[in-house]
Amino acid sequence: MTRATAAQSGACIEALAARFGGRMTTALPVRQEHAGGEGGAESTPPDAVLFPRSIEDISAALALCNDHRMPVIPFGAGTSLEGQLDAVRGGVSLDLSGMNRVLDIHGDDFDCRVEAGVTREQLNHELRHSGLFFPIDPGANATLGGMAATAASGTNAVRYGTMREACLGVTAVLSDGRVFHTGSRARKSACGYDLTRLLVGSEGTLAVIAELQLRLAPIPEAIVAIVAQFPTLAAAVQAVVLLMQAGLRPARIELLDELQMSASIAYSRLERLAATPTLFIEVHGPPAIVAEEKAQVTAVAVALGATVQTAERPEARNLLWKARHDAYWAARALMPGGGSIVTDACVPLSKLEDSILAARREADAGGLTCPIVGHVGDGNFHMLILFDADHERQRAAAAALARRIGERAIACGGTCTGEHGVGLHKRALLARQHGTAIPVLAAIKHALDPFGILNPGKTLPEAARQP
Amino acid sequence: MTRATAAQSGACIEALAARFGGRMTTALPVRQEHAGGEGGAESTPPDAVLFPRSIEDISAALALCNDHRMPVIPFGAGTSLEGQLDAVRGGVSLDLSGMNRVLDIHGDDFDCRVEAGVTREQLNHELRHSGLFFPIDPGANATLGGMAATAASGTNAVRYGTMREACLGVTAVLSDGRVFHTGSRARKSACGYDLTRLLVGSEGTLAVIAELQLRLAPIPEAIVAIVAQFPTLAAAVQAVVLLMQAGLRPARIELLDELQMSASIAYSRLERLAATPTLFIEVHGPPAIVAEEKAQVTAVAVALGATVQTAERPEARNLLWKARHDAYWAARALMPGGGSIVTDACVPLSKLEDSILAARREADAGGLTCPIVGHVGDGNFHMLILFDADHERQRAAAAALARRIGERAIACGGTCTGEHGVGLHKRALLARQHGTAIPVLAAIKHALDPFGILNPGKTLPEAARQP
Question: What do you get for the CA distance between the two ends of chain B, in Å?
Fold first, then answer.
């Protein structure tokens, strides 16, 4: 993986300036805005930021950068968590946020086509009169291109799937500027290699996603939120397994542990709730079916010792889900000004209880403050490891704990990242998880991006990138 | 794409014989059994058939074949429909049917690991006391490796997904014999390129799938089958769209048109049904939810003029689904001894009515006998084009009709193959559907199989295979 020389980099920026004029900048404040993402830690800004307005712009920019061996880092809303945007080898940040048109909506077919810079909130706003919604909800108001690139999911995945299922196809641009289309508007296809799923989760390292064909869902006729508060974490997790085994299809099953509940009660003023392990559940569907599912969920939770409240009115539900979305900020408020690492282990359901309890034990033993939230219907949980950023030993202990949570997830058949991606920070864990497949990943990377200009240093372990 | 010279081929077979002894044969009857699949038409047998018993066997065989530039054609149950097994360049058929162990079943996690030669009926038999089942049901008793290779789906896909969703990971072998693992047992992952989905649907052209980690589903507490008979085809299809829009999640929604119903009534003795456009629907879940869904499905169908019968007892349901599975043979009985082509278009739901009616009009205009069945919840329909195999003009007309059905599906945003794959017969349609992506497909093929030994002549259009 070459780095552009200073001369190549300078020539490339000159060529880009000639082509794009004011839509490219080397101003430091703009470059710094495009350096990081939400992953914390210091990160390197790109050499320039370019604002394409069309597929042709992306294609022209890539062809020029490829000629000059100049790295290109696709940028959406800057909400990634694993250093995906860090310009570790310099290069051009390709800011797609200006490509934000919803191109068409097919109500009868539950699909739409959007430019990569459309955010999920914008899409749902544009869908508001259609009876449809876009169900993937990672919390952050990310762009849909960015969500595809990191294989995002979030609270609704247990019923509606992740970006892998939501993406029917994309229009993407290769490192040399060639444009290609994948997928179709059909709900399934057996026509050739599944390039759509190959690009979902590739973190901008194989091609730049310019447009997406997305699957939508009908807005359910009825929605009920259920809050079940359990005496123990074990009971809460057992309830999840029983609900899934019963063949129920809740839209969301979110766990908040004692510590997180205590933080959220304070931050989001959830006075009616107790600081015990809690499931936030939501069921979607026709009213009679929702009523029946609510009764079944309640019965399972009560049998495991839970106290149960339900919220049917939109205001009451929104309050709950706002609190769930604010869980991160509530947790950060436990240590104002502190550093944090979010883990992202995803394990088989039967391993969830052990995984969470082991993480909790280790956090407590290390004296770290670590609330837990989880998309537990999928076996995915996030421990937020808080630490004093000025305290080197605490920082090292936090990093070690995060690494061991990932390693334990891998050891029990799970994955070190359920939805945040690999980026810069999880490459060693990827190597551990996919040891034998690394040469295959590297061969594909090399086949599609022979000069390694696309988001270099990300996803693939260092050793794997020159096959 | 090279073909092994006679000398290379002879040397390779000698080397394989030395390694595998009686587990390799060049006997013509065995080779002929491995030539075809169910796609009809004449096809070339392989030069030899090899029966591996382990991943090490597959690895050794591939390494030898790669050294000799000898084509390798993975073989499961021989039920593919698009010429995937035709040894167009000679080579070795790798018959995986002896690798038929269910390696483990994780009841709590709804997953299992199997060798590639396990068939779906065998798996469901082994699961019979577990409370779980494997929901993907293409009709034929295919092997699970073969089903993954062709991205199979079938009647249950509308609720349970296709092989893309069912495969959590695989163990596969590269053309040079290297073994690698993909995926994990977690329900989702954002850890690196999605090699699992890349191999699903790759028809043995990228790697040989040796083992699969599969997602299972809990056996629903209650199952009800609903038969709705409509006055017109249009009304039947409209009912499907309304059901999907209402957010219902039936397990199956199968269409049989008038001609197919008339064939099936005769073949399967469905005396209580009429020869009108019919939906076979099945709903799965807890009893109260199933009762509610049954009521809603019935209401929608009746509002569109349907007469509705339900079947709740297993015997009555099995009779119906046996008839649905036998639809192909019932239809073939309309022209005993005749040839047939099965089309596999899959289109956006809003295009389904037009697509089916256009196919029907064209079939009628050409004087061809063409019953239709469809997994209409997915927008997928099969027209079975029957023709007199000795009548050259009829054969040509049948082929032209099949091609135009595929072309029309592509033109309206769909795919020429929803679940049968590309194989030998749909390569021109693939080129039309994925024009701009062909160089990307070819680059990946070349990166993973540089000598082109894996199922040569399949999936990729001829022109694309030498990048």
Answer: 10
Same domain, A175 and A113: yes
**Whether B414 contacts chain A with CB within 8 A:** yes
Say how far apart CA B238 and CA A283 lie, in whole Å.
Answer: 27
Residue of B nearest to A285 (CA): B247
Record: contact A188-B437, CB cut-off 8 A: no
Q: Which chain B residue has its CA at the smallest distance from A414's CA?
A: B186
Cβ A346 vs Cβ A418: under 8 Å: yes
Question: How high is the ipTM of this complex?
Answer: 0.95
Q: Is A308 exposed, middle or buried (0-12, 13-18, 19+ CB in 10 A)?
A: middle
Co-location of B144 and B186 in the same domain: yes
Q: Rounded distance, CA A439 to CA B24, Å? A: 30
Question: How many Å apart are CA A284 and CA A222, to the nearest integer?
Answer: 6
Q: Taking CB atoms and an 8 Å cut-off, how many pairs form between chains A and B?
A: 302
Mutation target among A104, A188, A343, A438 for the B interface, most CBs of B within 10 A: A188
Final residue belonging to a domain, choices A287, A314, A329 = A329
Instruction: Please give the Cα distance from A42 to B442 (Å, whole number).
Output: 40
Alpha-carbon torsion, ordered B326, B331, B336, B339, to 10 deg: -110
**Could you tell me if B186 and B440 are in contact, meaning their C-beta atoms sit under 8 angstroms apart?**
no
Tell me if A230 is assigned to some domain. yes
Kindly report, residue by residue over B187-199, the tens digit of the pLDDT.
999 999 999 999 9
Backbone angles phi, psi at B84, to 5 degrees: -60, -25
Is the model's pTM score more than 0.90?
yes
Q: Are B66 and B175 in contact (CB under 8 A)?
A: yes
As a whole number of angstroms, the distance between CA A218 and CA B432 comes to 32
Pairing relationship of beta strands A252-256 and A102-106 according to DSSP bridges:
unpaired
Q: Are residues B254 and B313 located together in one domain of the fold?
A: yes
The reply to whether A81 touches chain B by the CB within 8 Å rule is no
Residues A322 and A342 both lie in one domain: no
Domain boundary among A329, A353, A386: A329
Is residue A46 one of the residues assigned to a domain? Answer: yes
Other Cβ atoms less than 10 A from the Cβ of B387: the count is: 24
pLDDT confidence tier of residue A465, bands split at 50, 70 and 90: low
- Phi and psi angles of residue B352, each rounded to the nearest 5 degrees, phi first: -65, -45
- Cβ–Cβ below 8 Å for A437 and B182: yes
What is the C-alpha separation between B58 and B72, in angstroms, rounded?
Answer: 10
Let me know whether A253 and A283 are in one domain. yes
CA geometry: angle A335, A338, A342, nearest 5 deg: 90
Same domain, B303 and B344: no
Query: Does the residue A466 lie in any domain?
Result: no
Domain containing A340 — which CATH number?
3.30.70.2740
| Shortest distance, CA B246 to any CA of chain A (angstroms) | 7
- Structural domain including B196 reads 99-218
Q: Contact B153/B163 with Cβ under 8 angstroms?
A: yes
Tokens of A421: 């991606």
What's the structural domain count of chain B?
4
Same domain, A183 and A270: no
Q: Take residue B378 and report the two structure tokens written for it.
A: 């997915």
Residue B454 has what DSSP assignment? B
B178-230: pLDDT as tens digits: 999 999 999 999 999 999 999 999 999 999 999 999 999 999 999 999 999 99
Residues 364-393 of A with CB under 8 A from B: 378-380
Contact A198 B197 (CB under 8 A): yes
The whole-number pLDDT of residue B38 equals: 73
Does residue B415 fall inside a structural domain?
yes
